[in-house]
Design goal:
Oligomer: single chain
Number of strands: 8
Strand content: 5-15%
InterPro entries: Leu-rich_rpt, Leu-rich_rpt_typical-subtyp, LRR_dom_sf, LRR_domain-containing, LRR_R13L4/SHOC2-like
Organism: Vitis vinifera (Grape)
Pfam families: LRR_1, LRR_14
CATH superfamily: Ribonuclease Inhibitor
Protein name: Plant intracellular Ras-group-related LRR protein 7
CATH class: Alpha Beta
Strand order of the largest sheet: 1-2-3-4-5-6-7-8
CATH topology: Leucine-rich repeat, LRR (right-handed beta-alpha superhelix)
Largest sheet: 8 strands, parallel
Keywords: Leucine-rich repeat, Repeat
Length: about 200
């Protein structure tokens, strides 16, 4: 079924109506018919209706600045695309609790990431990150941080301020710095995964 145009005549109007009523926009697996690289404009027109946006496994390259209009969105799932960067106004998504960006080509995260104070789960494995912004320490409600399979050599000291952190996934290439040792002292850290890579 999904939310794309189906054989039984699922119209654009009916899709949009369904998205508005459920708050869930699911366009997974290359179902963006018009242009596999383009963010669907009709989603941006939903404004406050969207609670979950799942665009997994498409060919998206850019996320438009207008995504900031989705102010009630709680789950943003953009795994397995071609995204290289996130919009600078990302911090306006104040309701966001889950952000999944695994399997993209993201090289850097904006400082505005630290404004997502309700964020609980951030998974950005399998990208091209070389560093994380210091502002990540402002994510006091963060429970899970997955930065495995990137090009990170260290974690910022500010990670030690993520006092709610329960699960940290990273690579063995990350130096066992004071930051990581500080995280290990957190009594609430229940799961620590250090992946071993040959390179």
């Amino acid at each position: 079924m999904g939310c794309c145009l189906s054989k039984n005549g699922d119209s654009k109007a009916s899709r949009i109506g369904r998205w508005k009523s459920t708050g869930i926009v699911a366009l997974r697996d290359s179902k963006l018919k018009a242009n596999l690289y383009a963010f669907p404009d009709e989603v941006l027109d939903l404004d406050t209706s969207v609670r979950t946006l799942d665009l997994t496994h498409n060919r998206l390259v850019d996320i438009p600045m207008e995504i900031s209009k989705l102010i009630n969105m709680q789950r943003l799932i953009l795994a397995d695309n071609l995204i290289e960067r996130l919009p600078m106004n990302l911090g306006k998504l104040q309701s966001l609790k889950v952000m999944t960006l695994d399997g993209n080509q993201v090289t850097t995260l904006p400082d505005e990431l630290g404004m997502l104070v309700r964020l609980e789960r951030l998974s950005i494995s399998g990208n091209l990150l070389t560093c994380l912004p210091e502002t990540i320490g402002s994510l006091r409600n963060l429970l899970l941080l997955n930065v495995s399979n990137n090009k990170l050599k260290c974690l910022p000291e500010s990670v030690g301020s993520c006092f709610s952190l329960e699960e940290l996934q990273a690579n063995a290439s990350i130096a066992w710095s004071r930051t990581l040792r500080r995280c290990l002292r957190f009594k609430h850290v229940k799961f620590l995964e250090i992946a071993i890579r040959s390179n």
